[in-house]
TrEMBL record:
Residues 6-256 form the ABC transporter domain. This is ABC transporter ATP-binding protein. The lineage of its organism: Bacteria, Pseudomonadati, Pseudomonadota, Alphaproteobacteria, Rhodospirillales. Keywords: ATP-binding, Cell membrane, Membrane, Nucleotide-binding, Transport. Pfam families: ABC_tran, oligo_HPY. It is a peripheral membrane protein. One of its GO terms (molecular function) is ATP binding. It comes from Fodinicurvata halophila. NCBIfam families: oligo_HPY. InterPro entries: AAA+_ATPase, ABC_Ni/Peptide_Import, ABC_transporter-like_ATP-bd, ABC_transporter-like_CS, Oligopep_ABC_C, P-loop_NTPase. Transmembrane segments: none annotated. It is found in: Cell inner membrane. SMART domains: AAA.
Length: 327
């Protein structure tokens, strides 16, 4: 088996506040190989996006990576800055942001932004760069790419802007793509088209992808492995089929049980009670225990990761095979 392209080990990213640090990412460990798709799943506020930003070196003050390791193709990324980081970010590692306006400059035409993205990392003429931009826009389902290149971002719809952002991320043929809710702004038909293109890219070019999402249906159809986050921690990870068919952590089981397609008609949707805890005042021990139907006194102490083959879960009382706890 080949060595991981990306190896994250006990990553900690904190945001300083007046009262106490917010541990947005608290000891996250995961790995990703070339040609593999890892689905990073969890509710809003669980730390998924901050994990992606940390890998890209995009965490701004008052946030910072305070511990752990991020190794890409054997190179430690934690501590890199400036020109050293540019050798990787945008060229070998790219990110698709949830909000395309985080990617696009509102005062520059699309062709200017795309050509600059190519020329910043490759020795390429403007004519060749423009042709590559047309191909990339066509690949993500944009018709009349020549006309779109002459547009400013405000002249495009939200869905069109997101497709342009995806096209920019693909321009330099990266080895790793971190996709943060990449199809949120797209209609169902275009979502399917983009996800099919992403899957083709992974299979044909051996690109690794970290797909950050709360949509389990997307993960089930695309990801090879799933890592479930809650309150800044990975609470379960393993092969997609195994995690979805037989979740071990109660939180994972709750996410799966709440998917509408798994519920019977004319019955109320199942839901996990309560809300994600405040990251400034996490419960002691397992942060999920106030919402967990299996919680006992032992859950007030921190659980350790349990491993079974290539699967792990962090729970004192894991869900048993065929056990239903969210009925």
């Amino acid at each position: 088996m080949t060595d991981p392209l990306l190896q994250v080990d006990r990553l900690q990213t904190h945001f300083e506040t007046y009262s106490r640090p917010v541990k947005a990412v608290d000891g996250v460990s995961l790995s990703l190989r070339s040609g593999e798709v890892l689905g990073l799943v969890g509710e809003s506020g669980s730390g998924k996006s901050v994990t992606g930003f940390s890998i890209m070196g995009l965490v701004d003050h008052p946030g910072r990576v305070v511990g752990g390791s991020i190794r890409f193709d054997g190179q430690e990324l934690v501590g890199l800055a400036g020109e050293q980081l540019r050798r990787y970010r945008g060229r070998r590692i790219s990110m698709i942001f949830q909000d395309p306006m985080m990617t696009l400059n509102p005062v520059l035409r699309i062709d200017t932004q795309m050509v600059e993205t190519l020329q910043a990392h490759q020795d390429i003429s403007r004519a060749a760069a423009v042709q590559r931009c047309r191909e990339s826009l066509t690949m993500v389902g944009i018709s009349a790419p020549e006309a779109r290149l002459r547009n400013y971002p405000h002249q495009l719809s939200g869905g069109m802007r997101q497709r342009v952002a995806i096209a920019i991320a693909l321009l330099n043929d990266p080895e790793l793509i971190i996709a943060d809710e990449p199809t949120t702004a797209l209609d169902v038909t275009i979502q399917a088209q983009i996800l099919a293109e992403v899957q083709r890219l992974v299979e044909q070019k051996g690109v690794a992808m970290m797909l950050i999402t709360h949509d389990l249906s997307v993960v089930a159809g695309l990801a090879d492995r799933i890592a479930v986050m809650y309150a800044g921690r990975i609470v379960e990870q393993g092969p997609s089929d195994a995690v979805i068919s037989a979740p071990r952590h109660p939180y994972t089981a709750g996410l799966i049980a709440s998917v509408p397609s798994r519920n019977q008609r004319r019955q109320r949707l199942r839901q996990i009670p309560g809300m994600t805890p405040s990251m400034t005042h996490l419960p002691e021990g397992c942060p999920f225990h106030p919402r967990c139907p299996k919680a006992q006194d032992l859950c007030r102490s921190e659980p350790e990761d349990s491993w079974q083959g290539n699967r792990s879960w962090r729970c004192h009382f894991p869900v048993g095979k065929d056990e239903s706890i969210w009925s």
